[in-house]
Amino acid sequence: LAQSCLKATVRFLLLDTAKSKRITLTNALMPEKNCGWTILAMGKLGAEELNYSSDIDLIVLIDSYNVNIKDPAGCVELFTRLTRRLVRIMQERTPEGYVFRTDLRLRPDPGATPLAIPFSSAFRYYESRGQNWERAAMIKARPIAGDIEAGQNFLAELSPYIWRKYLDYAAIADIHSIKRQIHTHKGFGDVAIKGHNIKLGRGGIREIEFFVQTQQLIAGGRVAELRGRRTTDMLEVLAEKGWITDQVCKELTEQYLFLRDVEHRIQMINDEQTHNLPVETEAFIHIAHLMGFDSSESFSERLLQALKLVEKHYAALFETAPELGIAGGNLVFTGEEDDPDTLETLSQMGFTRPADICRVIRIWHSGRYRATQTAEARERLTELTPALLKAFADTEHPDEALMSFDSFLQNLPAGIQLFSLLHSNPALLDLLVLIMGAAPRLAEVVTRRPHIFDGLLDPSIVREIPDQQALQARLDAFLNAGPLSYEQQLDRLRIFAAEQRFLIGIGLITGVIGGQRAGGAFSALADLMLNYALRLVTDEFARKHGFIEGGEIALIALGKLGSCELTASSDLDIILIFNHNENAEQSNGEKPLYISQYYARLTQRLIAALSAPTAEGVLYPVDMRLRPSGNKGPVATHINAFEKYHLNDAWTWEHMALTRANVVCGDQELVKRLKRTIEVIIAQKRDPKKIANDIAEMRLLLEEEKPAANIWDIKLKAGGLLDLEFIAQYAALTENLSKLPQPRTTGKILGAATRLDLQAEEYDELTNAYQFFTNLSQIIRLCYGDNLVPDNMSKGLSDLLCRAVELPDIGVLQAELERHSQNVRAIFNKLFKMDQAASA
């Protein structure tokens, strides 16, 4: 019936289309003959085993080289439109009902291909990315309408793909893996017959079909008789050829016919494509009576006997192979239909959108991503999938974590090495899941640039964070791999910095290093990048504009970079200082520039080299507002102007910023002079009371203009890191700590301060609070940047924070955070009389 309806519809559509002259018909009575449009029946329609209320599974193909197709280039669009009309005619409901529900999802990669596919595209797909379940599906393929001869030729040409001449052990292993994704149940005592899925459930029709098809795939290449489409016929051939016993053949055939009868009767009730037995007692008795049983008990007994027999033979198929399911449930992602037991398993694991999870994993198996295009990569990923799902299920938001991993896979250039590594290294798998589940900012970095994950392939890197000397050796090797253009070298700096920032972050979230060491490591990396970037920029700039006579430049790092407390999301506060011979007026290059113009453009070129986005992203955001006169002053500052400004005109807050200054790179003589100058500026005698008043006013202004976002805004909250930094800067300016060796971190200054009017326990509280806040701040900046919302904090992040400060749970941590904040703010008020400043 379905075949006749399809043939009639195809003939009508071809005759209707021929009126537009876009195709030529050679036979008006049989317009489908040699038309180039082929309809393949799949599944039960292909095997002539259709149910009472089955969908019909079709694959629609085009012979685009057929001489009767007028426009080979436009034939896909034409026949896709015809296919859409075909589906609408077959399944659109009218007052007279519908013909057959139609499903086209068995075509190659249905999420990415048109409804009608050229033969050449289909061949390329099957030969390069086709999966073994698709080989199994093609066993039942049969040309049913349209150009039958073309369809037969297509299947004949595809035959070597379906039927391997020699035993393909990798393919056999993959076939085994399909079975192993199904949890092997021990006994049927816990099965509720009511509601059981006769097709996909345990002991159901699908298990018999799979039993037959796997044997066909393994042996059909050598035994032509095993290439048939009908299940019962192939059971007989398997017995004849000695692949199964006559007893197994007899039992499976009987159960198959019995279960198919049940399936027909279930669908006859409401003309629904369902395979589930009714749950309600009255409806269940109805099915029992339709099957010829006088009671539901006798029907249930016979049904349970069938399910047990099928499961017994099915479970014995590959009983020596380890399972790829999990205890208590299936994890099956083959075909285009969702396995109901798999959906249930995923729900029980904690996934809230199991159907979406199934869809995503099927995309992995389809080979649509570069990382999963090879059969070997897909096999590795199949083996890894249960462990991945279990690991993601243990996160706070498993669906989001798995989707992040999916985005990571989409951008991954190759997968087999990573999949093999994750399969053999559970700790690395846990780390990847931790990133995806607890660190959205880090997950975004990995997803956007998956090559940075390559750094983890060297296990020694995870255990130890390299010092600046080791980093420099690595960078030299990376940059000297071959002749590179200026832009290529800048991109290589970005690649290197991204990978190293990622590895420092991994050290931080795995507990290899703490917050203060992470700040030092992030800062050392930034220092190195500045050194190389400045050298590249000056050399490139000089090619066109030459040099200034006696010209020197140096970079002063301020803020967190200057004090070696950089975080994963910090920008770089820098000032470019220059000097030159008194008699110099302009540069000596091909396009000379006057001195002020020269250094201004050089500075702008450096800012662009660091912060302009390229294909490899941004190296570092740059902030130059701490230069003399801020945004109103020139971007590059002469050393004389810098000295004069800070010795005569600078504000208190600018000298506070200089307490964290560090000259990180440049010409040696200028670097030395700058370091001496900064020490002199910091060592100036000051009125402690005036400095205290200025700090109080500044803090009040900041609280008004930039209040803390929430309790986790550790920098800006009252009694947070900013208060500690102000206290340290006050101590540096009033106690002459200019000789304190670099790096002058906030913690080091607080530890060296002795003349503040504080008790010993208050000094201890400042250093303890600094360490506590730094550990938390580094984790938060790494995982969330500046945008942590308390309600969105994942359990993974809260666990990381608790571990970083060695506290048992997030509640205790929050209490400790508030205690430290209140103590620091009390000390801040004691030193700077905030209450008086506020009232004034």
Summarize the structure.
The protein has 840 residues and is mainly alpha-helical. The protein has 35 helices and ten strands.
Keywords:
840 residues, mainly alpha, 5-stranded mixed beta sheet, 57% helix
Task: Provide a descriptive summary of the structure in words.
There is one protein chain. The chain is mainly α. It is built from 35 helices and 10 strands. Helix 25 (595-611) links the parallel strand 7 and strand 8. The chain is elongated. The N and C termini lie far apart (93 Å).
Fold blueprint:
Elements lengths: L1 H17 L18 E6 H4 L9 E7 L12 H17 L10 E2 L12 E3 H10 L3 H7 L3 E5 L1 H15 L6 H12 L24 H15 L11 H10 L5 H25 L10 H10 L5 H20 L24 H10 L4 H13 L8 H19 L4 H14 L4 H9 L1 H13 L1 H9 L10 H5 L4 H12 L6 H24 L5 H31 L6 E7 H4 L9 E8 L15 H17 L10 E2 L12 E3 H11 L2 H7 L3 E5 L1 H16 L4 H18 L15 H14 L11 H7 L7 H25 L10 H10 L5 H23 L1 H6 L1
Parallel strand pairs: 2-3, 2-4, 7-8, 7-9
Antiparallel strand pairs: 1-2, 1-5, 6-7, 6-10
Helix pairs in contact: 1-3, 7-8, 7-15, 8-9, 8-12, 9-10, 10-12, 11-12, 13-14, 14-16, 15-16, 15-17, 15-18, 16-18, 16-19, 17-18, 22-23, 23-25, 23-32, 26-28, 29-30, 30-31, 31-32, 32-33, 32-34
Strand content: 5-15%
* Average pLDDT, all residues: 84
Please mark out the parts with pLDDT under 50 across 5 or more consecutive residues, or reply none: 183-189
CA distance, first residue to last residue: 93 Å
Number of discrete helical segments: 35
As a whole number of angstroms, the C-alpha radius of gyration is: 36 Å
* Principal-axis shape: elongated
Subunit arrangement of the protein: single chain
Number of strands: 10
State the secondary-structure class: mainly alpha
Helix fraction bin: 55-70%
Instruction: Tell me the major beta sheet.
Output: 5 strands, mixed
